[in-house]
Amino acid sequence: MNQVVVTGVGAVSALGVGRDLLWMRLLGGQSGLRPMQRFETTGLRNTLAGEVPEDEWAPLAVEGEPRVTGYARVAAGEALRQSRLRSETVRVALVVATNFGAQDDLWMQAAGARRLAGGDYGSTAQVLAREFGVDGPVVTLSNACSSGTQAVGHAADLIRYGLADAAIAVGTDELGLFCLSGLSILHTITTDTIRPFDVKRSGTIFGEGAGAVLLESVECAAAREATALALVLGYGVTNNAYHMTAPDKGGEGMVVAMRRALDQAGIGPERIGHVNAHATGTEHHDPAETAAVKTVLGDHAYQVPVSAIKGATGHAMGAAGALEAVVSIMALRDQVVPPTLGLDEPDPACDLDCVPGRSRPAEFDVVLSVSAGLGGNNAAVLLGRC
What we know:
Elements: E1 4-13, E2 16-17, H1 19-27, E3 34-35, E4 48-49, H2 54-57, H3 67-83, E5 92-97, H4 103-110, H5 123-132, E6 138-141, H6 147-160, E7 166-173, H7 177-185, E8 209-217, H8 218-223, E9 230-239, H9 252-265, E10 274-276, H10 285-297, E11 306-307, H11 310-313, H12 320-334, E12 336-337, E13 360-361, E14 366-373, E15 377-384
Helix pairs in contact: 3-5, 6-12, 9-10
């Protein structure tokens, strides 16, 4: 199988437009959670959300383009520019992940008819394929909140098995009344703020944006003397079908996904030096994820810093795993572990080193990034230092 490297990353998030702003503000302990400006919040459980800053987004917006597509376009463009890949010279694939697509635009259009219009989840991928001249496989994934991580892993597999020389993996979602209303009804949203691994956690806060990762085979990158930012060592995905909204208490689905990633990489758990956790700040998920990490890593789990970035970005749904992959790659590059914001009083059931409040320098060669979603979807990707 072909080895896979990362040669470009891009981001749009509540912390700003661009990977550098995301990384700088995250390490600086800044939170992108703020009162929502685009929507009337009456009836929602919280006024807070991780909206993309409008003053940074407005100059880049295209009239009539759904935000979910615009965010993906800008993040993917940034990754391509960093990579300097010319799509006309190699076989390029595209994998786009989203939870809701442009459903909110469609909902607003159909509101007068009191019905929900059918959404074309593939429209963003179609736009990006035309924009960037993609001539290889084009895939759209919608597997709940593990979708972004699955996009990175699936794109890497397309290269590993010789179906493409390079691939753009993008996770993208936009905030809207359609998704926020449903998530409020489910009581997934907290009335407080998101507190990953904290004893007072009571739910999550949602965000939006896009993360993009440009992947290539080692041979493709070497042939054009591209700079490799990281290695994609392994990928695992599962669906444990345990419950529509709750994880099983031991996090067995996450355990299997992590072990599959390790098996594909051919490395042992002792090689993992940092974990970027899904950590939604919900009552049942955070202890289940903690248990899963301890099951996979054993005693080594207590020596590994575990970060959760949702306290800064909000839970960006289909974009979450992709943004977390971008952050993991930047962490490998700079040898810095980002902080977990919102963690003030650790829950004894979440007894790992969860890096509260401040970033931390560290030496590590492998990062494990984990995602989970409603319905039992789980994904894990292992990223290595070049």
